[in-house]
Amino acid sequence: MSDWVNRRSWLKDLPWPASENAVSPLDTAEYELKAFFAARTDTAACQLVPDLKEGYELTKTQNGFLVRGGKTGVLYGAYALIRALSSFSPVPEGVQQPYYPLRMLDCWDNMDGTVERGYAGRSLWFEGGSFSYEPARIRQLGRMLSSVGINVLCLNNVNVHQPAQRLLDDLLEDTARFAALLRPFGVRLMVSVDFSQPLQQGLGTADPLDEEVQRWWADTAKRVWDRIPDLAGFLVKADSEHRPGPNTYGRTHAQGANMLARAIAPYGGFLVWRAFVYNCMQDWRDTKTDRPRAAYDLYKPLDGAFDGNVILQVKHGPYDFQVREPLSPLLLGMNSTALALEVQLAQEYTGQQIDLYAMPPMWREVFSQMGKERVRAVAAVSNLGRDGCWTGHPFAAVNLFAYGLFAWNPDSDPAAVIRQWARLSYALPKEQETRLSDMLLRSRSVYEKYTATLGLCWMITPNTHYGPNPYGYEFQAWGTYIRADRNAVGIDRTAQGTGYTDQYPSALRDLYASLDTCPDGLLLFFHRLPYDYRMRDGRTLIQRIYDDHFEGCAQAEEMANALSGLSLPAPDREEALKRMERQIKNAREWRDVVNTFFYRYTGVPDAHGRTIYP
Amino acid sequence: MSDWVNRRSWLKDLPWPASENAVSPLDTAEYELKAFFAARTDTAACQLVPDLKEGYELTKTQNGFLVRGGKTGVLYGAYALIRALSSFSPVPEGVQQPYYPLRMLDCWDNMDGTVERGYAGRSLWFEGGSFSYEPARIRQLGRMLSSVGINVLCLNNVNVHQPAQRLLDDLLEDTARFAALLRPFGVRLMVSVDFSQPLQQGLGTADPLDEEVQRWWADTAKRVWDRIPDLAGFLVKADSEHRPGPNTYGRTHAQGANMLARAIAPYGGFLVWRAFVYNCMQDWRDTKTDRPRAAYDLYKPLDGAFDGNVILQVKHGPYDFQVREPLSPLLLGMNSTALALEVQLAQEYTGQQIDLYAMPPMWREVFSQMGKERVRAVAAVSNLGRDGCWTGHPFAAVNLFAYGLFAWNPDSDPAAVIRQWARLSYALPKEQETRLSDMLLRSRSVYEKYTATLGLCWMITPNTHYGPNPYGYEFQAWGTYIRADRNAVGIDRTAQGTGYTDQYPSALRDLYASLDTCPDGLLLFFHRLPYDYRMRDGRTLIQRIYDDHFEGCAQAEEMANALSGLSLPAPDREEALKRMERQIKNAREWRDVVNTFFYRYTGVPDAHGRTIYP
């Protein structure tokens, strides 16, 4: 790797390479400040204040700045100072503390080098069944994560494929070496484990109440933490999408999670239990069963039954990272359970790092609805890979950057965060910087219009999850239906329908259940409506569907224009333009396919005479 | 392998193993007759009559029979005699000659051991990038092929994946050894080659008019035929589904094929050129372009331009092995080109060797429409694999058996052929044999009713090609549309529509173009009709769609009943019952999904009040 990869990130102003000799975050902080201030007339110094822990305080001195902070806080402070100065932003005042103690990046990297739902090339650290990486690039990764406050990296796919169990077994030494690379940046490792692992180790069962199983996990934990004492914990997905779990043995998820949690509790480890669990063999004929209900129905009765070091990791919506979903009711209903909010930086359903999709506006909605005090941790599925620019599309880096800042402070302003990323990454003329920031700020709304208007998600091509296929998931077992017919479309999820709205606290329940108040963006998620239904603005439902698709596509074309006028550096400019061409093609396909799909049901032409293919 | 595999075939009465010492088909004939007649009181003798070539004549002698025949004819005669005696059928009288000189089995085996569209397990002869097989099992395969007159085996996938070029290169010795195993059974090898191979050998081009390219192929042919003098030829798929070909260099398919044909002509090799070529990037918005037209539009102008040893291999229908298609107009329009008819034993779209689907009734239709004199060769995509019963479903063997008999005599009677297979394979009580034969005889019609009524093909799940997904291919680039809307369904392919019917001779053109005469089974393939269209029997189109789906499913359920009463041997019985359970499930899914699909467009309930899910 060369300086080139460093320059393709928001850290481009920091001299490469990062220190190879740093052992602690304080070492790194001192190194980074020295390097950054070397080119300036003022100076900066660090001071360790253990009580501040992850927090820091920046103060002005006669010649420059003093960074006071806890063990990792001092490093976060150094980066915050550098970020503010580089972007000509005000230096934050007073003590800064992160809102969520755990700010995780979940990497779906497989040991064969592939990345599940990865759109930025192959794994940064696995290849051919074992570790394979450039230490310099991993240090650079640690620096990027640390610079925005991410403090845990889960290094392997939560769908644990063979031979990932080796990470804690004969490859433990390699895992420890990898952990050591990230330690000077305050980033701790987490490992995804396979609940059924004892079975593969020759035990006859993986039953969490079996003493031998419990002993096996306790022994494993001891061996692992002996070697990596600051390991953050284990991440587990069980009983989901055909994977084994406690239900296999007639045990609850609490019994399953607690067993593992107790094995790692002596070392301060967290057991993160992924709540993405539902009956994935739903029958489309059955209109009573409703997949969005599944997680709440399963976990709500277990509220309070989890041990203190268990964290239930819940996706932001009740489905699966769609463009727009209501907040998962589980995030509002589990009052006696530690929760982690999970978002997905990898753009599985949101454009695959080809189409522009900046997530901060979405997160703002999520945090404001959730009441940020409800959850204890945040986790994001990584959008990283071995590509030169780290994230496939160079602009997709904004999501990693912004995720860190929102995880630190969920009250962050999406526009300000996006603008800061743009300034740090490109230093464009002010007018161009505004254009780029605005484009990113509205990119989600554009993508939403042409792919998922009114909450109609799942019209996407099965398996690949890119491009339109409005009925591709309609008769599948995943519970993902839109139920369009010649008269109406959407699902009634009120008390008269599947009853999903009853899982919400009453204010939200009433908001969603009433046609007078339900937000347009979720209208067909919560309601089944005829095509001639009058929207609040007077348009018919079918016309609104057409309009959104025409507008979304036109707005994508406007973005293409705006983009071509930006004086971005090479190769980012060429890369962004190339991907924008694909986005335009994708947007047109969505527009025409979805409009035709509904035209064939309704026979209603566009009120403005635009082309809808028959 | 043990005798067990032998017993799971129509050769179960022949003692295992086949001779290891036979060198010529005559050796094999003598060995087989000796072994078969050892258990009888009469006898049989062989006599070589070179002039008969592949033909034979069976005559009664005082103590038994005399088999007179040509070099391979004598072996075919021996098997015909054994087949007749084993099935208590009359011994054929007079000289028997095969109708088609080339009777090919195209195997889509990849060298990594997978079989493209294979439903009977892994490859019988490839694994891990090279040959890997039990010689005894390959001899048994040769025996099965020979026993029904198949005389060419193309051993690798026509989509030539790396490292299959090694078959003619550093693995040539292994290929020759494999050819030698099949030679005593009169089965000659053919090899699929990659048109772009010269490129990968360091030449800068694969242009068929380039002299260096021509020399490279001539040298290759010399080297190969030196080692395998009876190699049947090369099979090629070029310029199709993103594969390179002569068009890449601005040359015609005739120029491409002839170049290869000239390289192998000195050795008597055939160049089989697969005519499965079309623009696979069609736009669904474009209603003028019509994929079924593609092959005729491309090849008709080349009629007469191909060398004498080129054979154009044409699929039976203009699409791709659907349950029901009209005959490919290419098979009727190429008067100065040698043609091979291609069928697919592998049940890619026809139930995947889970659902019952016996093909003889379909072939009868094809041969009777085509006029059997039009084509010079037949080819079938193999349904074989490493499974114990060879064909996944034990009954799927009927298609391999019957294919051989139809290739020998296209006037064969489907019912008689199916019955003979049943008798040779199972020796059931007469009433049960009738039940099994009847079940197989009507199995295609049952499958057709629940998957592809009225010529509505392509409502199948994309990629996997099993199970319903009525709109899965609707907006794709493959040219496979049904264009259903709230008023009508189907494609007008008459002169008023895409003009496809004009590719037929006038009698067929008129038959298909007129609603008065177009067969019901192809009605919506050729015409676009409103749902309230009155069928000739008085039913509406929509009611006919519903009826077929209810009936097809009910008939599948009847087959399940019939099957459970058959005293088949283990493990065939269990295997057949297990698969029948899956067929029933599949049939119900098709019935409900397709009925619902059209109900959602029409709002018309079933006239008989049967359940259609909303």
Sum this structure up briefly:
The structure is a homodimer of 614-residue chains. Helix content of chain A is 36%, strand content 11%. Chain A is of the alpha/beta class and 614 residues long.
Helix-strand makeup class of chain A? alpha/beta
Mean pLDDT of chain A: 95
Total number of beta strands of chain A? 16
Uncertain runs of chain A: none
Rg of chain A is: 25 Å
Question: What is the distance, rounded to the nearest whole angstrom, between the alpha carbons of the first and last residues of chain A?
Answer: 53 Å
Largest sheet of chain A: 8 strands, parallel, barrel
CATH architecture of the largest domain in chain A: Alpha-Beta Barrel
In helices, the fraction of residues of chain A equals 25-40%
**What is the general shape of chain A?**
globular
Number of helix segments of chain A?
A: 19
Supply the CATH superfamily name of the largest domain in chain A.
Glycosidases
Beta-strand content bin of chain A? 5-15%
User: What oligomeric state best describes the polypeptide chains here?
Assistant: homodimer
- Look up the CATH topology of the largest domain in chain A: TIM Barrel
